[in-house]
Design brief:
- The protein has about 260 residues and is mostly beta strands.
- It has a single domain (about 1-210, about 225-250), classed as Porin, CATH 2.40.160.
- Helices cover about 10% and strands about 50% of the residues.
- It contains two helices and eleven strands.
- It has helices at about 1-25, 50-55; strands at about 60-70, 80-90, 100-125, 125-130, 130-135, 140-160, 170-185, 200-205, 210-220, 220-230, 245-255.
- A hairpin with a 2-residue loop joins β9 (about 210-220) and β10 (about 220-230).
- It is elongated, with a radius of gyration of 22 Å.
- About 35% of the residues are buried.
């Protein structure tokens, strides 16, 4: 059920993204560049909520966001929550033809509070060699894991319509990579491990891919809606690397453009 739900949501986001870009790509006109000091022939003049005018005049974005999601596959009983801040800058003029026309943005996230929840169970630590193994008594593990996460590499492509005036919606796609630290080794493993194996790691990597839209309230403010597929892996920094092969996480944010 969760697999179907996650697939449906990602498909819906992709359809919205493609549809918004395709309809805009049929228009004609001129797009100003991020370096333009004035652009009297386009919207985004400080009064109209316009995506193209905003990226041309105000390339810096600062966002506060809330994120939540769930695991898939053998991690479908995992859940995730976080709050954080996003900083990005549009670096290029509009390039590429048709529905691919857009501008490249480099950005990063920081989540000072991140939480992953897993089922609770009991596990033991084992020591020795095969044939002579001693294990500790079972003790509880799992539940809530708290930590922080940074995503210093976000490569975003903002689809910019050509000459589409007063367009409130700006779709985008992105790829990203980050680092996660938790107060206990995540995810939990057990109940019995190989002798000498003490579990996963408190550090994990978070490669991810996402789609989303910015909905502009005015040239300096927008709402962000986003869906991400996030992989969590320690890259074998610990004794074992159980990881989370795929999770689906949703973001809603409020963005300031300057």
């Amino acid at each position: 059920m969760l697999r179907s739900r996650s697939a449906f949501v990602l498909f819906a986001f992709a359809a919205l993204l493609t549809g918004s870009s395709a309809s805009a790509g049929t228009q004609s006109g001129t797009i100003p560049t991020p370096s333009s000091s004035s652009a009297p022939d386009v919207p985004g003049d400080g009064t109209n909520p316009d995506a193209t005018g905003t990226l041309a005049k105000y390339p810096w974005e600062t966002e506060a966001f809330f994120n939540g999601g769930f695991g898939t596959g053998n991690r479908d009983n995992y859940s995730f929550l976080s709050v954080g801040a996003h900083l990005g800058k549009v670096l290029t003029d509009p390039v590429l033809p048709g529905i691919l026309r857009g501008q490249f943005e480099y950005a990063g996230d920081i989540m000072p509070w991140w939480q992953g929840r897993t089922p609770k169970f009991e596990r033991a630590n084992c020591y020795g060699v095969p044939g002579d193994v001693t294990c500790t008594s079972l003790y509880p593990t799992g539940g809530a894991y708290n930590g922080l996460s940074i995503t210093p590499i976000i490569l975003r492509w903002n689809f910019v319509p050509r000459g589409h005036r007063e367009e409130r919606i700006l779709p985008f796609v992105q790829g990203a990579g980050g680092l996660l630290w938790t107060n206990h080794k995540f995810p939990p493993v057990g109940p019995y491990q190989q002798p000498g194996h003490q579990g996963a790691s408190v550090f994990n990597f978070t490669p991810q891919f996402g789609v989303g839209v910015q909905y502009f309230l005015n040239p300096h403010r927008s709402l962000t809606f986003q869906a991400n597929a996030v992989h969590i892996s320690s890259a074998s920094l610990g004794d074992t690397n159980p990881g989370v092969n795929a999770s689906v996480q949703f973001t809603i944010g409020y963005t300031w453009w300057k």
